[in-house]
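Hi there. Long-time user, first ticket. I'm pasting a complex I've been working with (about 913 residues overall). I'd like to know whether the download I got is complete or cut off, because the file seemed smaller than I expected. Thanks.
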Amino acid sequence: MSVQKANVTRFELLMDAGFGAQKAGDILVQAFAKLGRYVYIEPMIPAEISPPPRTRPALSGVIIRLADFDITNIGNNTDVILAAHEIVLDRRLDDDEYNPQCRVLLDIGDKKGNEESYERVCKRVAQMGLSIYPIEMTPEALKIIQNLGGKGKNMYYLGMFAQIYGMPEQAIIDEIKETFGKKLNEDILNKNIEIFHQGLQYAKENIHFSYEVKSVPENIGGEKILIDGNTSLSMGIIDAGIKLFSGYPITPASSIMHTLAKELPSYGGMVHQAEDEISAIGTAIGAYYGGTPAITATSGPGLSLKQEFIGYASVTEIPIIIIDAQRSGPSTGMPTKTEQSDLPAAIFGNHGDNTKIVISVSNVIDCFYAPVMARYLAEKLRLPVFIMSDFQTANSYKVIKKLKVCALDNVNDIPDFVLERFHISRLSEKIEMVRTNQSTPGVEGGMRRVTGLNTDQAGHINYFSGVNQRSHQVRNEKVHTVRRALTKPEMFGKGEGELLVVGWGSTRGVIEESVDILSKQGYSIGGMHLKIVNPLPLMLKEIFSKFQKVVTVELAYGDQYKPAPLAMLLRAETLIDVQSMISRATGRPIRPLDIREKVKEFFGATQNF
Amino acid sequence: MVTQSAPSNAPFNIKDLFTENPRWCVGCGDFGILMGVKRFMVDTQIVPHNTVHVSGIGCSGRAPNYINAYGVHSIHGRPITIALGLALTRPDLNIFVHSGDGDALSIGGNHLIHGVNKNFKCVFLLYDNEIYALTKAQSSPTTRKGHATMTQPKGTFLDPLKAIRLVLGIGGSFVASTADWMPDHLANTLKAAFAHNGFAFVHISQRCPHFDPENFDHKNSSWFAFLKHEKGIAPDKRVADKCEIIAHDPGDLNEAFKLSNQEKSYFGLFYQDQNKPRYDEILRNQVASAKQLPREEILEKYKI
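Hi, the file is complete. Here it is re-exported in full:
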């Protein structure tokens, strides 16, 4: 029996869609977290609902990163893969995210009749230099699974993982009961527990390695929550006092609507499923004109459709909040893969001049507070405010300490800690609007008509050149008000040196982790993460000037002639030759390792990791 | 723009609804519609500061700017979406949607379908001049076949889309038709529409003397007739004695379909169903019937 001690390790469970891989992952990480470990979870979700089993598109699974220190991202490579059959394994190996020592546990239950296929994949694993461990279900477990109509394999694998990662059997059984207790009848619940037990016993007898990740006593106890990005955003919407969610189904934003459909009515709010993306934002704008805080959420294709209304909201000075859960584009792209390439569409996407605020989220905590931040900005400025998330942030989850709620009613009551989280100071009370009268319907003596046409200060339609120029100035001054209020962005490592690595949104965790490690190794490197991406803070050039080279890491396409979106923005803003160190659109998140390799290349180091 | 309203305790008159002189062409049917709307507002004394006129783009889109109430001149084809946002969250407001044939039946067709289907409370005015006018004489979905336009100069290719038939077909709960040159009938139609419990669709034949002067010859009454019924809308007094009047029960959907399918135009109430469920009420009831929870505890259920 070899016990491998690790500060951090990563493993994954690969199954066919619909067989509960993510559910098994949920149970496991809750037990890990309660027993003092830190976890970060990324589900792998197919773009289709129920692709035929035993096909490559059917791959559905969960990646779990486990550590004895707080982790901010899904990490680098996998140490243990458990695959339900050879086809999902073969598909996942294509992503090239395994360690050279990675152990591959392959269920050979499907081998009969598929010998050739199994042989080919096993050969591939061997050629990669990885060790393969054939596993199988016990006859007892198989019998119960048959009895359950083919379901329950996930519990068996859960049992194996529990054994491999040294989780007490009872701790997991408690989690299973907590997860299924109310949903399954006792007989089925007990069957699931028995399958789990079978898996655990099987691993005890047949798998002769295990991992030991230390429990951190400080991380035990206290109120903790397990939450993913979209659920956190949904709860943040409620916390922000938003009373209408108006959306149209689109991956990966839909789950926000699903969560709110269940929850929002209990907090005095409505969920409206519109006939299309345009209608969804129109209805939110209509509600906000009537004085009701409203929000819409979408992804790339929906963002394209909403653009005319976004420009309209700027001109009419009707507040509106838009969540963009970015996915791989352009066009339909890869709906269940992550990307950050909507940034230009958010900042510059409507026709004519663009005046809006774009904030981004990097983790589940940001997700919770972003709606409060966005509502404050939208109502103070009466401009559109974006919350930019992405597939990765939307779906990844973490166990965190329970968050403080704001229960916001009046935006002026926004707590300081939320402003600090987004690196902005409180805005001044007096912000000039294009139109003086901003009354809400129902106010006697305040009757006014809003229009997308240019108007003067009194609200009259006006096509005179000077009046139009003034409207632009007033709208842009609102953006500049934010620009001036922005404080220094979050920095990692050194404040000066040879290389500064900059990112926004979901890349925060990998920048922080890789810059920390590289700094400890003596590299002259700093990191920066931007949460508000439009406008950008005024001191950016000053910070950049303290480094010999500034580069970005982004999940968006760029090449030697085409700077990736953030690099393009930073170049325009600072006139500094910012280039993209990583600008890829593979659909997979950037790993700390990728940054470290690129940085070493930059410094001309030769040693390997 | 901002204008003072009459004090809420005193009755208001047509003058109180004035904002500025409309920028429409001389003889435009929109003047008649605007007058009908104002007369209706004065007759019913609906409180202007509790009233929102929402419009899209086109000649009709300008209407809210010319009525001293609240107004949203929105974007092309989308006024229904804005109106729904108000209807869901502000049931205290009186909501009117002003939309043209291009706005409602072409670019905004999808919203018309779903607005009618959702049956949320509003009065919808379709200004149908059978042409794109503000963009200068292109064919619209209701332009009559053969009529030459800037985009189909040899004559419009297709038969016009029958808006009333469409709205009946998608389950309209209130379908009426009137014309810009009959202010009495128009105001009475709006009264009936405003009293309706749901989405009240009002088709208005509207003259466009600039781009299609020969259309809607209101001096010749052979091409139209009035629908008459005790539950309907009375025929226009000034026109009624010169034209055909037929009896039609607005509860008879089959007959309404037949009428909507004919070449002849009918003014009056085609169909009304006061019992169709309203989406705005359904959504509000969801909130009213949900057990209200304190926001302070929203994260409790995610506790491990």
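A couple of notes from our side: The first strand of chain B starts at residue 51 and ends at 55. Chain B touches chain A through 58 residues (CB under 8 Å).
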